[in-house]
Amino acid sequence: KKWLYCLLIPALSSLVRAQTTPAANHVRDNYQKVEYKIPMRDGTKLHTTVYVPKDASPTNKYPFMMQRTCYSVAPYGPDTYPNQVGPSGTLMRDKYIFVYQDVRGRWASEGTWTNMTPTVTDQQPAVEANAKKKGKAPARQSALAVDESSDTYDTIDWLLKNVANNNGRVGQWGISYPGFYTIAGAVAAHPALKASSPQAPVSDFFFDDFHHNGAFIQAYLFTYPVFGIQHPQPTTEAWYNNAFIQTGSNDGFQWQYDLGPLKNVDKYYKDNFYWQETVEHPNYDEFWQKRSIIPHLKNVKHALMTVGGWFDAEDLYGPLNIYKTVEKNNPGTYNTLVMGPFGHGRWSRETGHTLHSNIYFGDSIATFYQRNIEAKFFNHFLKGTGDGKTGLPEAYLFNTGRNEWKTFDKWPAADAQTKQYYLMSGGQLATNRVMGSTDAGNGSTLRFAEFISDPIKPVPYTEDITTTQGFTPFNYMSEDQRFASRRPDVLTFQTDVLTEDLTLGGEITAKLKVSTTGTDADWVVKLIDVYPPNEPNHPYMPNKNITLGNYQQMVRSEAMRGRFRNSFEKPEPFKSGEVTDVTFRLQDVLHTFKKGHRMMIQVQSTWFPLIDRNPQKYVENIFKANADDFQKATHRVYDNSIIEVQVLK
Ligand code: PG9
Prior knowledge:
The protein is α+β, with helices and mostly antiparallel strands. The protein has helices at 2-20, 26-30, 89-94, 123-133, 148-162, 177-185, 236-243, 251-256, 265-271, 273-280, 286-289, 317-329, 363-383, 482-485, and strands at residues 31-39, 45-53, 62-69, 97-102, 166-175, 193-199, 211-212, 215-216, 303-309, 335-340, 355-356, 359-360, 395-399, 404-408, 417-423, 429-430, 448-453, 491-494, 502-516, 522-530, 552-561, 580-593, 598-604, 633-638, 642-648. It has 14 helices and 25 strands.
């Protein structure tokens, strides 16, 4: 017995000791946490947690680095510390006064929350300037006029006056929805806001996250806690099982909530206010337009560094369009862009999170970005001279075909050459029209490729149909597309084997000439890098048993709900059988198709369950389509359809 105790006691005591000495926590050891309720101009108090470096003093002052979020600033309570503060471990160790705030109406803050708060307070300066010009008193904006811009302004003003040992400068960052709050804070900004980095910022939910050109991204049926409902996303296989039981564009949530044929959809509908808003606003109407931040980026005076991921399935439209809009409207502003080979927000983690589908670009790329780009930007404007001479380029972009960073002094690149490729009915992707194999039959030289599009047997968006791919699928953004090119309802066009490298840098525009025997149709265009048969493995492929020979790597893809081809606000049916223009933009790329590879374009009309299915018969609101609205149709792509690309030397 005795020997048992002598064994047990030291073991137990080390266990007890382990419990009493908490694990090392850099934040707790180096920062002092204080929680405030900060009053906004309309009296609403926002919960704000501040982490002040313990060595801050009147002779050792620090700038603020702030994130405003709808996803909670947990952990709450005075003696609880997160493992990291700030956008990366690098900045945490560089020390700032880190500020985290629950936005209005969320978590521990007062007020009413709405999705993508409409920006309303930025008109006031123009109203006052205008009135002054006319020698009149400006119409005062009601103090109750508030938005994310005014809440950010009021928060900064309060922090400067109430948090000791700050150096009078403020930075703001945020990824995704917090990226929206960051860019919204840059509108009519407080003069102490010196540097903002909206990262994968949501700019407009009709083009980011929930919709792509009007097609609904069904993963959002299983939405974040932020919308009150969270359910695990079903596997693609489960969606297919459901799709054949209950047609209708939102079969996913009927199946998921075990609703059966519309058993409890009303309950789901009532529980999820944002879902109601989405269903009631199928077109780009005032509901969506007033929530876009893009029209408000006219007066950004301080430094901006927008960050995005080439493989970001949630918010790719946002970063690219925010950067371009600020560049256009505020030419004198320090405004830069970083695009890395990342999935959504994966640049912010120091290990293992840049994994992307079968191709893995390595942790070092994320830490390179954090230490050599992000930290440099904030340190310069918040601790340094702030004169804009950061040593960073206008655009720091990763070439996903060469697997290397490239810097540009302008984006889109000044020396980009526009090049047009025709989609030939014989399957060629050619810069000059070669006669295709199928004659339009009406004596014209117009030839076409055609397929039967069946919403009950839709094209899967991924080959991996037995697992779910995180909240919003993103592996598909660079996945092998051979599973699709074998299908009769996917058209494939490819160049000859390239005799030299071909680098695309910038936007891609699909200018399709199509027809359908139905009266509505979606069009999906995919840009693919076809590897040669004998390609050695990708330098960044952890899954070594996947050979790259003939691999069809997705480079860029986009859907266009055809009813919006002339206007996102005013949808129009197709005239059955009539050749119709469908033109839309695929988001930018920087990708080298190496010599020996081919460039491929695929065109299809379903992309399941990534986007909801189009009945292919025009109905007022696809969210309310009935099962018998869904019909097969024959789709044609005529050979004067063009894919317009930007080619770099
Ligand atoms: N942009 C992402 C998102 C927005 C809304 C709902 C769900 C996700 C994000 O904030 O991660």
